[in-house]
Automatic annotation (TrEMBL):
The keyword Lyase applies. The keyword Metal-binding applies. Residues 6-273 form the Pyruvate carboxyltransferase domain. Belongs to the HMG-CoA lyase family. GO terms for molecular function: lyase activity. This is Hydroxymethylglutaryl-CoA lyase. It comes from the Bacteria. SUPFAM superfamilies: Aldolase (SSF51569). InterPro entries: Aldolase_TIM, HMGL, PYR_CT. Keywords: Lyase, Metal-binding.
């Protein structure tokens, strides 16, 4: 889905739930997605086609996709790690696939059971099949800002992988701060690299607020040019395979930042705050966002 201009991609139903202790049932997850749609969110990462034994919070992806509200102006994204995941995604009728390519061998081995070279080969096969199926395809480069096992990840390492990924013709490239270690200087360096090797590919950024840098990073990415920005209602989320990984930037807080910066997001503040409170109760986990407490300005 080519949504024009800077916009929010809601990842709460996928990344927001996958690291929570409580696994929610299919009906509750569909209700969460429906609340996101009602709040005005139009690109929603709804499911992850991963092994449910490894990530039980994402079990029942097919059932979720069979029950989500279908609208012409809403695009549902399924995350995939391999060709089996792509098979499931295509059979489930997703509008987009998000394919994860990891930037370090150690994290890739733990997360996807292969090294970076095999991860790139998988991406190339998935990209070809997705293109044949006519499905919008994003390549997300995980741990682009730092790895919990390998440490620092140089911008040039990431851009070399971007260059390889771009040769397979993705519709969009997402740069992910999987564990929330990045700072704005890294965003600028990676943006410059994208300009050099993939200037014509749509851009998406995925930030976590683990070290209170997520919103600064998001505003930096926005200032550098039109892009998609991932966020999670309530600020829930984290990677199950990254120690101490905490939540995504919150949809309601990002909405405030963008709207005050002149972007019409189409997201309803009251509806998204209400959705955050509801999912917090379902998870028995506190909301991480601040806008529900502080409120809008002017009030």
């Amino acid at each position: 889905m080519r949504q024009p201009g800077t916009h929010v991609v809601e990842v709460g139903p996928r990344d927001g739930l996958q690291n929570e202790k409580k696994a929610l049932g299919v009906d509750t997850r569909v209700d969460f997605i429906s609340r996101a749609v009602d709040a005005g969110l139009r690109r929603i990462e709804a499911v992850s086609f991963v092994n449910p034994k490894r990530v039980p919070q994402m079990a029942g992806a097919e059932e979720v996709m069979a029950a989500v509200p279908r609208r012409d102006d809403v695009s549902y994204i399924g995350l995939v790690l391999n060709e089996r995941g792509l098979d499931r995604a295509l059979e489930s009728g997703v509008d987009e696939v998000n394919v994860v390519v990891v930037c370090t061998d150690e994290f890739s081995l733990r997360n996807q059971g292969c090294d970076v070279a095999e991860g790139l080969a998988r991406w190339e096969r998935i990209a070809a099949r997705s293109r044949e199926a006519g499905v919008f395809t994003t390549a997300t480069l995980a741990v682009s800002f730092g790895c919990p096992f390998s440490g620092e990840v140089a911008a040039e390492t990431v851009i070399e992988i971007v260059d390889r990924v771009a040769q397979s013709g993705p519709d969009e490239i997402a740069i992910a701060d999987t564990i929330g270690v990045g700072v704005p200087a890294q965003v600028r360096a990676l943006h410059a690299g994208l300009d050099r090797v993939a200037p014509d590919v749509l851009r998406r950024w995925h930030f976590h607020n683990t070290r209170n840098q997520g919103y600064a990073n998001a505003l930096t990415a926005f200032d550098l040019g039109e892009c998609a920005l991932d966020a999670s209602i309530g600020g829930f989320g984290g990677c199950p395979f990254a120690p101490a990984a905490t939540g995504n930037i919150a949809t309601e807080d990002l909405r405030y930042q963008l709207e005050r910066s002149g972007v019409t997001t189409g997201v309803d503040h009251d509806a998204v705050v209400a959705a955050a409170s509801w999912i917090s109760a379902e998870l028995d986990s506190p909301v991480q966002a601040l806008l529900g407490k502080a409120g809008l300005f002017p009030g």
